[in-house]
Amino acid sequence: MSKLFTLAAYFYQSIAGLVLVLCVSRIVSASEYSQYSLAVATSQAMAIAAFEWVRLAATRFYPAETDAATRRKLASVWAAFVGGVALLLTITLFVGVIQRRPIEAALIFVVALLQGGTDLQLTLARFRGQLLLFSQLQCARATLLIIGTLAGATLSGQAQGGLLGLAAAYVTTALLFGFVDTKSLKVNLAEANREDLAAFLRYGATASGASTIHLIVPLVLRWGAARVIGLTDFAGFALAMDLMQKPFATLITALQGIVYPPVVAEHRTTPDGSRPSLTKLYQIHIVATLLTLGGCLAFIPEFGQLFAPASFRAIFLQAAPWATILFAFHALLQNTVGVAAHLLRRANRLVINATVELFTVSAGAAGATMLFGPAPSTIFMGAAIGAAVSLMFAAPVATWIPCRLPWRSALIAGAAVVCMTASATFEASSLIATVATKAVVAGIACGSAMLLANVLGVRSRLARIWRL
What we know:
Elements: H1 2-27, H2 30-61, H3 67-99, H4 102-127, H5 131-156, H6 159-180, H7 194-228, H8 231-269, H9 276-307, H10 313-335, H11 339-343, H12 347-372, H13 376-394, H14 407-422, H15 431-453, H16 458-467
Helix pairs in contact: 1-5, 1-8, 2-3, 2-4, 2-6, 2-7, 2-8, 3-4, 3-7, 4-5, 4-6, 5-6, 7-8, 7-12, 8-9, 8-10, 9-10, 9-14, 9-15, 10-13, 12-13, 14-15
């Protein structure tokens, strides 16, 4: 039951994020939304650069075998976080000088700092096995971020007001987390161990370097697009990126939060044995990503009609399909094919994979722009081709730990994607009828794929129920 609550919390966070993006895009002007989107993406990249190494180290080294060792690890985790704060401050000063917007840089610093801190607390709660607490805190944070950001954007009508509301919401979230989750904060920094910090740095810094580079990929696309297309076109580009990236990021994070801990435990206890948990992780990740891809492609016309402002709706509709394909490849590359490297602590290969993606995506976007002209759809098309190339380069990593790869499940899910995508052009007499028909098609396609591929043991469970 606690795993269901955890999964529900991730999906609630995803829906909250989508609602936030859509509401802000309608509250402020196209130019202000472009600034807001870029500022939020920058804060996320800074949080990853400063704190992801600490969070990743916590996932591999916390908790420990004994209570005393666990307390020491916790102290070392928060000592490492303090080091990350110093790094974040340095990055913020650099960004402030480059952008020449000190107030915006200060708000970005607050958002990145508290995002990193609350993410770390959520990670600690999840790996302690307190899934119900994790779910409650995750939902509370998502709700507070919606309220704060929309209040700031509505009252000011500007990007800076929305950013101020986001920062205020994070401050409130941090206070709430400190009051509710006291176990993560019961720490004496004097107990921090130098050997622990060295281990965190060796593993976490390298692995987080890969995460940072992966996160920089869409950020580089934003920066590049902002320089070659106009503000209205960039608003459509940014909305396509914000809207189509969110489902994949949240879905994989949710599934990984539930499926990944058993994989780590299995690797620790049976280093030379079979890997049923790893096979299940690959199956769930691949099938879920492909089904999400098909669902998003099917409903893009309705997304544009319902959520994209008329001023850049056409741009959004042209760009969104390629953006969806790009982020499906990006999700598989970042979260699925590198699992074996994480388990074997061969983080250098993760950095190589991420660097190759950054190069191929950037080169693909630049090449497509030179060949076909600067347009949001062109940029996303070239980037998607580059992501496909980098995915093929990284795929062999998945075979480093022997296990049964779910090829059959991938083919079944691919067929479901084709069925759902074919319904994208369907249009009934009304919007409600169109959405309902597509939802039925998507439901049948997803259900059939999960049944035929036996994802999460669906077929086995149904067979047991039938026998009863």
